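Hi team,

Below is the intake form for Amino acid ABC transporter permease from Streptomyces solicavernae. Please confirm the fields before the structure is written into the shared record.

FORM ID: S-0412
PROTEIN: Amino acid ABC transporter permease
ORGANISM: Streptomyces solicavernae
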Amino acid sequence: MGWDEWEQIKSEVRSDQDSHMQLAGTGGGSASGELKHSNAPWTSGAAVLEALRIDLSTSMPRLEEAHAGLSTGAEGLASTAAVDAVLHSWQQRLKGVRDECGHLQEALREVARAQTSNDLKVKSAFSRVLPGSGDETGGR
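The structure came back. Fields below:
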C-alpha cells in the first residue's frame, strides 16, 4: 500500500461521521492516548472451544451407541461395510476436531497470558523513563 493510498483511507475515515471504526492517528474518536488491551476476546473464544471440545467428547460415544446393532442380521451386505466405513470416518474427523479445539483453546489462553505479561512489562519500562514516575533522572 502506497503512502497516497494510506492518506486517502485516513481521509475517508475522518469524513465518515457515522463510522464505528477510527484509525489511529486520524484525529477521530475520543482516544485517551493509551493502547488498551482486553483478554475478553481470547478467553471467551477459548471458553467456546472448550465447550465444543466437551460436546464432541460426549457426542462421540452416542454416535457409537446409535451405530451399535445396525449390522445385526445384515452380515454380508455391502451396505453394512459402507456404514462401518462412514462411522469410522466420522469418528476420525470428530476426534480431530475435538483435539484441535483443545489445542486452539490453550493457544488462545496463552495469547491472553502473554499479552497481559507484555502489557505489564511495557508499562513498567515506560514508568522508569516518564517524568513524575519516581525516576527523576528520566531513565538516564
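SUMMARY LINE: The chain is about 65% helix and 0% strand.

Thanks, M.
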